[in-house]
Design a protein that fits this description.
By secondary structure, the chain is α+β, with helices and mostly antiparallel strands. It contains 4 helices and 5 strands.
Length: about 130
């Protein structure tokens, strides 16, 4: 509603209304910001244990099976963070390969390109049947 409409309106509640501008959005921003800070804190305080190293043959077999059946996989890279812990696992569906790169898609992270020689551990994730969801 424009200023002109409000100044000539017959209802005094509308005519005398003072818009608080950006102040009315601060509550929304504050709750969203707090939720994001909480998520970042949880990520900082989560420690991922390094899984056992798999050989190239086992990794290749699981990659092939996951690609052919479009199953979800959980991939742990062989990189460690500065504290000596593993990074969070990459979870997604194998979309394809090119040279030494593996393309993994995830609805939240999009498509990630993983160097094939940087995989420490990979495993298939069993799909949850819709009838088993609580």
């Amino acid at each position: 509603m424009g200023e002109g409409f409000m100044s000539y309106h017959s209802d005094p509640l509308i005519r005398d209304y003072e818009d608080r501008g950006m102040a009315k959005w601060m509550g929304f921003y504050l709750s969203e910001h707090t939720a994001e800070m909480e998520k970042e804190r949880e990520e900082r305080e989560t420690f991922w244990v390094r899984k056992p190293q798999m050989n190239d043959l086992d990794i290749s077999m699981i990659l092939e099976k996951a690609y052919m059946s479009s199953c979800l996989v959980e991939i742990q890279l062989d990189e460690l963070n500065p504290e000596g812990y593993a990074y969070a696992d990459i979870i997604g569906v194998i979309e394809g390969f090119r040279e030494n790169s593996i393309f993994v898609s995830n609805p939240e992270a999009g498509i990630q390109v993983i160097p094939g020689d940087s995989i420490n551990h990979i495993s298939l994730i069993d799909p949850v049947k819709w009838s088993k969801i609580p």
